[in-house]
Amino acid sequence: MKLYRAKGNTLCSKDIKLSGAQAVAPCAPECLKYKIVSIMAEFKEGDVVVLKSGGPKMTIETFPYVDMGETYNDRAKCVWFSNYEIKRDVFKVTALKLSE
What we know:
Elements: E1 4-7, E2 10-12, E3 24-25, E4 48-51, E5 58-62, E6 65-67, E7 70-72, E8 75-82, E9 85-92, E10 96-98
Antiparallel strand pairs: 1-2, 1-3, 4-5, 4-10, 5-8, 6-7, 8-9
């Protein structure tokens, strides 16, 4: 199966950056609907990020996220402090942005 990169609602055969990620679609270029099967974000472990909607600064602890042997290229495990307590959670990379 040939893979094509997705740009908006259309497909082409080139790598197109989509909000800090790349989406891969397993269908023909003339197809307007696509399913994202892989996201390769520009994040790396140790990066300081925040939620796009706001919130505390968090450090990416694990990327890509692995749970019970399953690898999730579209998720990152983050760590941060809240009231002197360490917190951890997993977020989709589409919800994160690098902290300024």
